[in-house]
């Protein structure tokens, strides 16, 4: 492996240089690559990240996905699983929820012995505590805007050709403000 010296003041830093593949040069594909690619994709890796990890160019990753079904399937499974995990987490963040946690508390016991001397004993107990986690407004906003952009967009679209439906408001049986002013 080649090393490259960095011209720093007074010291040199040796970094490994990844050999670059030339266009048209066939790279070595190994049978353990699908497992590694799957794990990388579970961590959120994109094709360019896989290319860096395997020391190849992005086009090689695309070719491996075309030519090796096991590699393609591993990448797709990893990316889909990671996306589903994030989607589930985002959905949970949009909801109010109560979680139960375990918390240590210190208990103090005070009593008097047979001689009338005050005795204090301390012990730690683990108790379950319910915590309310409020819904995250930004997660709700993101979810709704992406789930139904026509209804939840910040932009007003006046190009809608459908006629607006009549809206009837029932404000109750209050006083008529024009009659009360007299």
UniProtKB/TrEMBL annotation:
Protein name, as recorded: Terminase
Domain of life, per lineage: Bacteria
Stretch list, region Disordered: 150-182
């Amino acid at each position: 492996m080649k090393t490259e010296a960095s011209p720093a003041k007074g010291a040199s830093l040796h970094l490994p240089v990844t050999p670059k593949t030339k266009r048209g040069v066939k790279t070595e594909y190994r049978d353990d690559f699908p497992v590694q690619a799957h794990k990388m994709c579970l961590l959120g890796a994109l094709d360019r990240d896989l290319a860096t990890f395997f020391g190849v160019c992005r086009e090689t990753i695309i070719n491996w996905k075309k030519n090796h079904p096991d590699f393609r399937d591993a990448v797709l499974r990893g990316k889909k699983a990671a996306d589903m995990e994030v989607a589930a987490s985002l959905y949970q963040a949009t909801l109010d929820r109560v979680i139960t946690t375990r918390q240590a508390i210190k208990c103090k016991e005070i009593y008097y012995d047979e001689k009338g001397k005050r005795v204090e004993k301390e012990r730690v107990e683990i108790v379950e505590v319910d915590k309310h986690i409020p819904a995250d407004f930004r997660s709700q906003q993101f979810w709704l805007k992406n789930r139904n952009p026509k209804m939840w967009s910040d932009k007003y679209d006046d190009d809608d050709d459908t006629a607006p439906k009549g809206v009837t408001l029932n404000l109750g049986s209050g006083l008529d403000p024009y009659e009360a002013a007299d």
